[in-house]
């Protein structure tokens, strides 16, 4: 590595007289370019052998194990777009924790409402403003 950055040089063994801490994947401490560090060098557990968060996992506490988000727990994690504390569909937030067509979701736990004026009749809507005679969704 030809980097002139003192931290990079120190961590690559070029400099020895600078007091600093270098990232060491597997030591349980997230430093530098590490996205996670679950105290091991094993891939497949959410934090790869290179200390990069693996797809589908979240690592909420630095130095602890990574976990797969649980759809239906009311917390939006990982690839979840919403989480309304249930595993049902048809209420705006699907059983896969994605916002359903015609709904807008926000908050934790998520609250989803039908989007008025989108040419769809979903949820509690009885009509949509794009239709003649509809004055309120």
Question: Largest beta sheet, briefly?
Answer: 2 strands, antiparallel
Shape: elongated
Q: How much of the residues is beta strand, in percent?
A: 5-15%
| SSE string, helices as H and strands as E | HEE
Strand order of the largest sheet: 1-2
Structural category is: little secondary structure
Total DSSP E strands: 2
What's the end-to-end separation, in Å?
A: 62 Å
Describe this structure in words.
This protein has one helix at residues 6-11; strands spanning 103-106, 111-114. The chain has 137 residues and is low in regular secondary structure. It has a two-stranded antiparallel sheet with strand order 1-2. Strand 1 and strand 2 (111-114) form a beta hairpin. The model has no long low-confidence stretch (mean pLDDT 86).
Brief characterization of the structure:
This protein is largely without helices or strands. It has a two-stranded antiparallel ribbon. The protein is 4% helix and 6% strand.
Q: Key features?
A:
2 strands, 137 residues, little secondary structure
Which secondary structure elements does this structure contain, and how are they paired or packed?
Elements: H1 6-11, E1 103-106, E2 111-114
